[in-house]
Design brief:
Elements: E1 4-5, E2 12-13, E3 17-19, H1 24-36, E4 41-44, E5 59-62, E6 69-73, E7 78-82, H2 87-96, E8 99-100, H3 112-117, E9 134-140, E10 146-150, H4 155-161, E11 170-177, E12 179-180, E13 183-192, H5 193-198, H6 200-206, E14 209-214, E15 220-229, H7 238-262, H8 267-277, E16 281-286, H9 287-291, E17 299-307, H10 311-325, E18 333-338, E19 353-361, H11 367-379, E20 383-384, H12 394-397, H13 404-414, H14 423-429
Parallel strand pairs: 3-5, 4-5
Antiparallel strand pairs: 1-2, 6-7, 7-11, 8-12, 9-10, 9-11, 13-15, 13-16, 14-15, 14-18, 17-19, 17-20, 18-19
Helix pairs in contact: 4-13, 10-11
């Protein structure tokens, strides 16, 4: 029997079968056959979710062989792709056509369908998450048919399907609203954390993209400010890129996290060392080269979206929590900003959002820390990132989403027998109710 595990290596399952269709027609056949046999179906992309969202005892559908760009219209910016295309490959294909994603996150190893389905995002108060960049999608449903879902044809289903964590069907194709290719000028610099928190909303609004990293046990924040520009690109030379990506991000930092895992009492000193090593840097390049980084240091993560106005106090409380309990948190707290959108289960649904992410090195106990952070975030009406760890259930998630009932109605219509329900979906979305 085949087995599967996610990128972090912490979620494992042994599906009845793992199917790898090459086309929508094959995907329809796979889903229909599984439904006829009474088997559950879950789609899997690159395995970058930290939850058990993809795990199943039934049929796991990998979209790894469905990664093509099907149509691209540079004039309108509409690009139709298969659901299994990886973000990094999509970015290159768009660039070759003079196009780009409006915004994206700092990891581009996810498939587009997985990133959309979990409301994966970048940063920028004027930009929505990836699901908000869709104009239509095609969904293979429990009835064993492929249906087109868009704002024009079925607006309620479209708003539900954009962020559904695989619970409405398998996304075979997506139509993206892309923009003309552009460049970004990014400046990274360490700044006093207190100064950043005092001016947090102003900093977020003053730049196209703003984010920062705050290391526990230090008083320093590493800020990343990015501005879209018409200036010619100034790519880093190969040596400079290697030093930053391989030596610093993956080599030195990886070694320090392993040292902290072996000797937890050293973590405060190691964090202070990292901030002392941090120096300013500057990049000006095509957007996709600025957004994404190759992250190979293994970790697990929780991320919450909270109202922007609560960001500074929530961050202070997380930093205080770590130091008060002397927790060995060697990864920085990551802070980003996203515009509101209208996907029914988006953590940014109808509110300007600050995302606060906490990480722990792979192999280090994380649950006590994550649960404590989650309690802080819940006090501010926090909604969990669907691709990251959390401990919420349907009963207490429902009040956090004004359109929860509308989503459940679409779910009951498209998957009345729960073909796409697994342990994760049952826990966080509840049973299918008709």
């Amino acid at each position: 029997m085949a087995t599967w595990r996610n990128w972090a290596g912490e979620q494992r399952c042994a599906p009845h079968a793992i199917e790898r269709p090459r086309s929508e027609a094959e995907l329809v056949e796979v889903v229909g056959r599984a439904a006829d046999q009474g088997l559950g179906v879950r789609a899997v992309g690159s395995g970058h979710s930290f939850t058990d969202a993809a795990c199943t005892d039934g049929v796991m559908v990998s979209l790894a062989r469905m990664g093509a760009v099907l149509e691209a219209d540079p004039a309108s910016g509409l690009v139709r792709v298969q659901g299994g295309i990886v973000l990094g490959e999509l970015a290159l294909a768009l660039a070759a056509r003079g196009l780009a994603l409006e915004n994206q996150g700092d990891i581009d190893a996810q498939t587009i369908s997985g990133a959309v389905s979990t409301a994966t995002h970048g940063t920028g108060t004027g930009f929505v998450n990836l699901s908000g960049q869709l104009s239509a999608l095609r969904l293979v449903t429990a009835a064993g048919e492929a249906v087109e879902v868009s704002e024009d044809d079925d607006p309620r289903a479209f708003r539900a399907a954009r962020v559904a964590v695989g619970s409405l069907g398998v996304i075979s194709e997506l139509t993206l609203r892309c923009v003309p290719a552009f460049r970004i000028h990014r400046i990274d610099e360490p700044r006093p954390l207190a100064e950043v928190l005092a001016a947090l909303e102003e900093l977020a609004d003053a730049h196209d993209h703003f984010e920062f990293f705050a290391f526990p046990y230090t008083d320093t924040a590493l800020t990343l400010t990015s501005t879209r520009t018409e200036e010619p690109a100034r790519p880093r030379d190969g040596r400079g890129a290697w030093i930053e990506e391989e030596l610093v991000y993956n080599g030195v930092f990886g070694a320090l996290t392993r040292l902290g895992r072996a000797f937890p009492t050293l973590v405060p000193s190691l964090n202070r060392l990292v901030t002392r090593m941090s120096s300013g840097s500057e990049q000006l390049d095509s957007s996709h080269r600025i957004y994404a980084h190759d992250r190979r240091v293994r970790f697990t993560e929780m991320e919450y979206g909270i109202p922007r106005q609560a960001a500074a106090i929530a961050i202070e409380r997380v930093m205080d929590l770590v130091e008060r309990r002397r927790l060995p948190v060697g990864f920085p707290i990551e802070v980003r900003f996203v515009a509101p959108d209208d996907a029914l289960l988006s953590p940014s649904y109808e509110r300007p959002t600050c995302y606060i992410a906490v990480h722990m090195t792979a192999g280090v106990e994380f649950e006590s820390f994550f649960r404590a952070v989650e309690e802080i975030m819940r006090e501010y009406g926090g909604r969990p990132h669907w691709g990251k760890r959390h401990y919420r259930t349907a009963a207490d998630l429902a009040p956090a989403y004004p359109e929860w009932g509308a989503f459940q109605a679409v779910r009951a219509r498209l998957d009345p027998t729960g073909v796409f329900t697994n342990d994760y979906a049952a826990r966080v979305l509840g049973p299918v109710t008709r």
